[in-house]
Amino acid sequence: MMVAGASVKSEREVSSLVRKQLEIGNVWADKYDQDNLDGLTRAIRDSGELQPVFARAIVGLLSDKRLAMRTGAVAMLPEVLGEIDAAALIDLLQTRPELYYRKKPSRKYPMFYDDLAEAILVSIGRATEPGDARSIEFLREAAKGERAWVVVSSLASIDADWLCANATLVPRNTLGSVLLSLPTPEHREQLVRALAPWPESEREQVVAKRYWDTLKFDQAEIDKLKSIIAGAHWNPPTSQNG
After folding, report:
1. Complete DSSP assignment for 121-179
2. Cα-flanking dihedrals φ and ψ of residue 2, to 5°?
3. How far apart are CA 224 and CA 231, in angstroms?
């Protein structure tokens, strides 16, 4: 069958084609591609019934001995999360930690994460379902460590009660994404109250209008959360300045 303009003769061939694409990028290529990931992304999105096969190929490359290959595979995880069990990614982190922790992404496929483990943790969070007890417990433990910032938004979505009960684990610089992920105004208020009082050095930025414009909550709720953050320094908005 044809996948994004390239012939795929069998399911067994997918793994070698994915590897070749990440290595040299001449399987799926376009003059407008920024890197080899662009072509692989097109292939995955056009793969139809072969998408689970592409997903398995990418998971298989997560433990490749070459850092560039592992980095490329990690970068492609968001494209195949619908076909991946979070437990499979947890198993990799637990059984082969040396491949991911303290391993900076290859410059061939740069990421803004400090190491590959952080990027995989993000994918674990996105792949975890509310009833997945093992994955949720794994994310809870991760939230207690130095990589809390990459998992708290996922926990806000799938385990809101626990996260709010342990709100002091939430780094303040993740507030926006966590508030967006929490399901109810009550959860959001509980979280903000737990993190108060806000440091003076951060207070002005967090109550600024531009900060809240992206969150699109009810204005009354925004004003309430701002008042908790600012405390005695809170000046209620007027109809002129919002």
Report:
1. HHHHHHH--TT-HHHHHHHHHHHTSTTGGGTHHHHHHH-HHHHHHTGGGS-GGGHHHHH
2. -95, 130
3. 10
- φ and ψ at 14, to 5 degrees? -60, -45
Report residue 239's pLDDT band, with 50, 70 and 90 as the boundaries: very low
85-140 pLDDT, tens digit per residue, is 999 999 999 999 999 999 999 999 989 999 999 999 999 999 999 999 999 999 99
For the chain, the maximum distance between any two Cα atoms, rounded to a whole number of angstroms, is: 68
CA triplet 194, 226, 215: central angle to 5 degrees?
Answer: 95
Beta carbons of 42 and 28 less than 8 angstroms apart: yes
Take residue 202 and report the two structure tokens written for it: 């951060």
The answer to whether the beta carbons of residues 203 and 229 sit under 8 Å apart is yes
What's 81's DSSP letter? Answer: G
CA dist 57 and 191 (Å) reads 40
Cβ contacts of residue 117 below 8 Å, gap of 6+?
A: 93, 97, 100, 101, 102, 103, 147
Query: What's the pTM value of the predicted model, to 2 decimals?
Result: 0.89
- The string of pLDDT tens digits covering residues 3-40 is 888 899 999 999 999 999 999 998 999 989 899 999 99
Per-domain residue ranges for the chain? 153-242
What pLDDT is attached to residue 47?
Answer: 95
